[in-house]
Design a protein that fits this description.
Length: 583
C-alpha cells in the first residue's frame, strides 16, 4: 500500500503496530532519528518547517516561565529547550512528541534546589543541571534494562492524585508573583498562609496583578483553539503594554529584563558533597514523573498515527534529552501536553519540527535577546498557573468516585500528601500507596466454598447462590489470588474454617486452584503443613485446575511428590467425579 507524500507512514488499515514493526536493529534502534532521516520525504519539509516556526511562539514564553517556576533564571529555560529538542530528534522514537521544561516537574525541581541554593542563581542552575543528568542516567539505564513498564505500576487514581497535588503546589507557588510580592515560607500550606497574610497586609501590587490576571484570562479563553497561539498572544500583549506604558519603572511591575546574548555552552555542573543525596533523590523522582507523562503522551500520539513506540526506547530517548540538558546548562525536562498538540495542529510530520523550533530559539538568543526585556513576571506566572490548571483532573475522578470510592479516596490521600509534605515526599507517598494497593488484593483476597446451584452448570460460590447444595463429605474451596508469604496464613485459616463449617464430616478437601497463578516457598511450606493436619484428621487434600507453571514450582519444592500425582485433577468436575466414585 502506498502512502501519501504529505504524511508519515503508518501501518496498513486493519493492522495494529506491534513490537516488531519497523525492524529497528543496530544504530537504528538507539538512534531512531537516523531511520526517520533515511525515510524522509521532501514533501514533509514545508510542513515541518512551518510547524517549527509556530511551535517557537510557545517554546520561548513557556520555557522562560517554567524556568522561573523551577527556581532558575529564565534564560536557562531556553537552554533547556534548544539542546534537548535536538537530542530527542536523534534518540526519541516518537515522530511528533515535543520535549522541554514542564510544569509537572517545576515543583519537584524547586523543592530540591530552593533549600540548597541559598538564593545563589548560579548554584541553583548547577543543582538543577545535575538533577537533569541524574534523571537522564536513570532513564537510559532503565531503557537498556527494558524497564519501560515501571510507570504502569502506578494506578490511574494514584497518578491523578499525585498530579493534582503537583498542580496545586505549582499554582500556589506562582500566586505571589501574580500578586506582585514575595514570601518567605516553606511548604504549600505555609505558602498559602503567607500569601493570605501578605494580601491582608496590603502588599499586593494591583497593577502587577491586573497584568497577570488579564494574561491568565486570555490564555484560558483561547486554550481550546489549537490554531490560535493563546499563550503567545497573551504574553506578547502583556509585554507590549508594560513596555509602552513603562510600568516597570512607573508602577513597580517586575519584568524579566535583558537576556544574555549567546547559546548554551557545554558545562559540567559541580555540586557539593552535601548536595549529592537530595539531588539523586530529586533526579530519580523527576525520572519517574517525566517518563510517566512522556509514555502516556507518546502512546496517545502513536495510536493516532497507528505506529508502535517502544517504551524502552522512549525512556532512553527521554534520558538522552535530559542528559543533554544537564551538560548544556539546562534542567530536567519532560514531554509537553501543551506544545505537542500545537506542533500536531500546525502540521508537524517528523521530529524535524522540534529541530526547527530549537534553531529558531537559538537565533532569537543570538539576534534579538532584548525582545523580551519588558516581559512581566506576573505574565510568566499566569502561563504556569494556566498549565497547572490544565493538570488538574476532576471529571474522571468523579467517575472513579461513582465506580469505586476507596480508589477515589486513595487519590485524595495522594493529593493531600503532595500538598502537605511537598513534591518529593509526595511521590514517595504515592509509590508507597501504590505498593499497598498492589498487595492488598493479594494479601486479603476473596475466597469461596463452592456448591451445585439448581439449573446452573458447574460449581459456584454458595454466598452468591444461597440455594446451592454441598456434596456430603466434600469441601470445594476456591482461592482468588496467588499464594505467597503475606496471605499463606490466611489461606490456612480460611480452609480450616470452611471444613469446620461443613454440615457433614469432611473426607476430601478440593482446592479449585485455577485462580492461583504463583506459589512461593512460604506458602508451599504452609500447604505441606496443611496436608499433615488434614491427614491426621482423615481428610484428603486435592487440587484441581492448577496451572502447569505453578505445578512445576510445587515439583521443585518437593510438594508435588509429597501430595502424589493422584492428588491433582485437570478439572473440578473430574475431582468431584473421583470423590463420588471413591465414596
Amino acid at each position: 500500500m502506498s502512502h501519501s507524500d504529505s504524511s508519515p507512514p503508518v501501518t496498513e488499515p486493519g493492522r495494529i503496530a506491534h513490537r516488531g514493526a519497523g525492524g529497528n536493529t543496530g544504530l537504528s534502534r538507539w538512534l531512531p532519528g537516523l531511520k526517520t532521516l533515511r525515510e524522509y520525504k521532501i514533501a514533509w519539509l514545508r510542513h515541518d518547517f512551518m510547524a517549527g516556526l509556530v511551535l517557537t511562539t510557545m517554546l520561548v514564553p513557556v520555557g522562560i516561565a517554567y524556568a522561573v517556576a523551577s527556581g532558575v533564571p529564565g534564560i536557562y529555560g531556553l537552554y533547556a529547550t534548544i539542546i534537548p529538542l535536538i537530542a530527542y530528534a536523534l534518540f526519541g522514537p516518537s515522530r511528533i512528541l515535543v520535549l522541554g521544561p514542564d510544569s509537572s516537574l517545576a515543583a519537584v525541581i524547586l523543592a530540591v534546589i530552593l533549600p540548597l541554593s541559598g538564593g545563589d542563581p548560579m548554584r541553583a542552575v548547577a543543582l538543577a543541571s545535575m538533577m537533569a543528568i541524574v534523571s537522564g542516567v536513570v532513564c537510559i539505564l532503565a531503557g537498556i534494562a527494558r524497564l519501560g513498564f515501571i510507570t504502569e505500576l502506578l494506578s490511574k487514581p494514584i497518578r491523578y492524585g499525585y498530579m493534582n497535588g503537583i498542580a496545586l503546589t505549582v499554582l500556589i507557588s506562582q500566586l505571589p508573583k501574580l500578586f506582585g510580592f514575595s514570601i518567605d515560607a516553606d511548604g504549600p500550606l505555609r505558602n498559602v498562609m503567607a500569601i493570605v497574610t501578605s494580601i491582608l497586609n496590603g502588599k499586593t501590587n494591583w497593577v502587577t496583578f491586573a497584568v497577570g490576571a488579564a494574561t491568565l484570562v486570555v490564555i484560558l479563553l483561547l486554550k481550546g483553539h489549537k490554531r490560535i497561539p493563546g499563550i503567545l498572544i497573551a504574553v506578547a500583549g502583556a509585554t507590549i503594554v508594560v513596555g509602552m506604558l513603562d510600568l516597570g519603572a512607573r508602577a513597580g511591575v517586575s519584568i524579566l529584563g535583558q537576556l544574555p546574548q549567546g547559546l548554551p555552552a557545554f558545562a559540567i555542573p559541580w555540586i557539593t558533597r552535601e548536595d549529592i543525596v537530595p539531588v539523586i533523590i530529586g533526579g530519580c523522582a523527576v525520572a519517574l514523573v517525566s517518563f510517566a507523562d512522556t509514555s502516556v503522551l507518546s502512546r496517545v500520539y502513536a495510536a493516532r498515527t497507528r505506529t508502535y513506540v517502544d517504551p524502552n526506547q522512549e525512556m532512553a530517548g527521554l534520558g538522552f534529552a535530559n542528559l543533554a540538558a544537564g551538560f548544556f546548562q539546562g534542567f530536567p525536562i519532560s514531554s509537553s501536553s501543551s506544545r505537542t498538540p500545537v506542533a500536531e495542529a500546525a502540521g508537524a510530520k517528523t521530529q524535524l519540527t522540534g529541530v526547527v523550533g530549537a534553531v529558531a530559539v537559538a537565533v532569537l538568543l543570538m539576534v534579538a535577546p532584548n525582545l523580551l526585556e519588558h516581559l512581566p513576571n506576573s505574565a510568566l506566572a499566569a502561563v504556569v498557573i494556566a498549565s497547572a490548571i490544565g493538570l488538574i483532573e476532576i471529571t474522571d475522578l468523579r467517575r472513579i468516585y461513582r465506580m469505586q470510592r476507596w480508589e477515589f479516596w486513595l487519590s485524595i490521600v495522594c493529593t493531600i500528601g503532595v500538598a502537605v509534605f511537598g513534591a518529593i515526599e509526595g511521590i514517595g507517598i504515592a509509590i508507597v500507596i501504590a505498593v499497598i494497593e498492589f498487595l492488598w488484593d493479594g494479601w486479603r483476597p476473596y475466597s469461596a466454598v463452592l456448591g451445585q446451584a439448581p439449573g446452573v452448570k458447574g460449581f459456584h460460590d454458595i454466598q452468591r447462590y444461597p440455594d446451592a447444595t454441598l456434596i456430603p463429605g466434600l469441601v470445594l474451596f476456591r482461592w482468588d489470588a496467588s499464594l505467597f508469604f503475606a496471605n499463606a496464613e490466611l489461606f490456612h485459616d480460611r480452609v480450616l474454617d470452611a471444613i469446620a463449617a461443613s454440615p457433614t464430616p469432611v473426607r476430601w478437601l478440593v482446592i479449585a486452584a485455577e485462580p492461583i497463578t504463583s506459589v512461593d516457598v512460604t506458602s508451599a511450606d504452609m500447604l505441606s503443613e496443611l496436608d499433615d493436619t488434614l491427614k491426621a484428621a482423615g481428610i484428603e487434600l486435592c487440587l484441581a485446575e492448577m496451572k502447569d507453571p505453578v505445578k512445576d514450582k510445587l515439583k521443585r519444592f518437593g510438594l508435588f511428590e509429597k501430595l502424589g500425582e493422584e492428588a491433582f485433577f485437570p478439572t473440578v468436575d473430574d475431582a468431584v467425579g473421583n470423590y463420588l466414585s471413591a465414596n
